[in-house]
Automatic annotation (TrEMBL):
Molecular-function GO term, any one: sequence-specific DNA binding
Pfam families the record matches: AraC_binding, HTH_18
Domain of life: Bacteria
Species this chain originates from: Pseudomonas matsuisoli
Name the record gives this protein: Transcriptional regulator
Length: 284
């Protein structure tokens, strides 16, 4: 397939879009997930299970409890003012209380959400994180999600919750985050790169356009995102590849659309970021 054709095809289906919206990147409406209507939790830990056949999203919102959004299947993305947080299968996104956010998912996603009262999460840092879910924690979440809403706190269900909280406390944090700059000029750069994944514009090119030195722009980018310009662009491209790969698109097509001239280079970068090759990660 011609490179421009691959790029235009991929851009239609990216989960990471250029702005928060209720529309997918191809202009089609996203399925709007319903949010819980209660204002207090029925228990200190509450579970919600969802099976979503089509790409979906929530409106921007916040709540008084901590949320753990877990992808059993599919790709999840949480957007906050600080950046984008991506969860692949067997990963989860931890959201502190009162943080405004939106949640988006790919098609055929299996989601398990845990809502946790702040009284049982005092050990957790007050920031959004992506966590690795161990096989044990996976089974604990699955089992807990099948319990009645008002389970017996003093019985086996209550003990299961204690073990689950203990496992979440020890979960390893992953660098599946795309920090987003707040400085207007850097925001424009990042949104442009997101809209044109295969563009080869360098930091030097951007410095000439913005009328500043490359050194100054590099320092600002690192201060705003914690990543170099090159590292941020690579992470953007790899994150943007997740949905089409999970859907079953050819690795070569996705690599070209994301700006890689070599499939082997794309696979190597993918393995370095996610710890697995695309084939290993999305094997059915």
């Amino acid at each position: 397939m011609h490179r421009e054709g691959v790029q235009s095809t991929l851009k239609l289906d990216l989960l990471l879009t250029t702005k928060s919206t209720s529309m997918s990147s191809n202009g089609q409406p996203l399925y709007q997930r319903q949010l819980p209507t209660f204002t207090t939790l029925p228990r200190a830990v509450y579970a919600r299970a969802e099976s979503l056949a089509q790409p979906s999203g929530t409106r921007r919102h916040s709540h008084a409890w901590v949320q753990l959004t877990y992808a059993i299947q599919g790709v999840l993305e949480v957007r906050t003012n600080e950046g984008r947080f991506v969860a692949l299968p067997k990963r989860a996104i931890w959201l502190p209380e009162q943080m405004e956010h939106e949640v988006f998912s790919s098609s055929k996603a299996e989601i398990r959400s845990l809502y946790l009262d702040v009284s049982v999460t005092g050990w957790a840092p007050s920031r959004c994180r992506v966590l690795e879910i161990s096989p044990l924690t996976h089974e604990l979440i699955r089992s807990f999600s099948a319990l009645p809403t008002e389970y017996e706190m003093g019985g086996p269900a209550g003990r299961l919750v204690d073990v689950l909280l203990d496992q979440l406390r020890e979960a390893r944090e992953l660098a599946f985050t795309l920090p987003w700059p707040t400085q207007p000029s850097l925001d424009v750069i990042c949104r442009t790169m997101q809209a044109h994944l295969d563009a080869s514009r360098t930091l030097h090119d951007w410095s000439l356009e913005l009328g500043c030195s490359e050194k100054t722009l590099s320092r600002q980018f690192l201060a705003q995102t914690g990543l170099t310009f090159r590292a941020w662009r690579q992470r953007l491209r790899l994150f943007s590849a997740l949905v089409p790969l999970e859907r079953g698109d050819r690795v070569t097509d996705v690599a070209l659309a994301c700006g890689y001239d070599s499939t082997s280079a794309f696979i190597a970068a993918f393995r370095q970021q996610f710890g697995e090759t695309p084939g290993e990660l999305f094997r059915r």
